[in-house]
């Protein structure tokens, strides 16, 4: 199965409202990053144990660990969670930037150092989310 097929299967496996929101978000991110590398992480580790929710990734970013090791990862990620959707913006080094810049403006969402979590797209300001995504592509 191709990455695009895995992504579509994952999105279509969600309940209807979440599926529609995730499809809309997927299209929005692809409009912002039309030529990006696509990722699909099934949430399982090398022993096939579930360690996270499956997630879709967009773009290419080099993660740097404290021990000096690096690995390729996505710049922007999206995942369904038990209550809604999480959007990950990995490329922002200042871990207070997202919450300070977008937390008060985005609507009903929880904003942390690299994650924006919300129940449904209707609960947030899409233009503010788009600005946060674009911000994550700058660094």
Automatic annotation (TrEMBL):
It comes from the Bacteria. This is Uncharacterized protein.
């Amino acid at each position: 199965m191709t990455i695009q097929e895995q992504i579509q299967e994952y999105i279509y496996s969600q309940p209807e409202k979440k599926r529609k929101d995730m499809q809309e978000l997927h299209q929005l991110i692809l409009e912002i990053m039309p030529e990006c590398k696509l990722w699909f992480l099934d949430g399982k580790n090398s022993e096939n144990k579930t360690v996270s929710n499956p997630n879709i990734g967009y773009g290419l970013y080099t993660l740097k660990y404290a021990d000096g090791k690096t690995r390729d990862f996505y710049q922007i990620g999206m995942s369904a969670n038990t209550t809604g959707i999480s959007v990950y913006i990995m490329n922002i080094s200042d871990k207070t930037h997202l919450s300070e810049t977008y937390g008060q403006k985005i609507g009903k969402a929880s904003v942390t150092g690299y994650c924006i979590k919300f129940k449904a797209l209707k609960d947030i300001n899409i233009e503010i989310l788009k600005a946060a995504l674009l911000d994550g592509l700058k660094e």
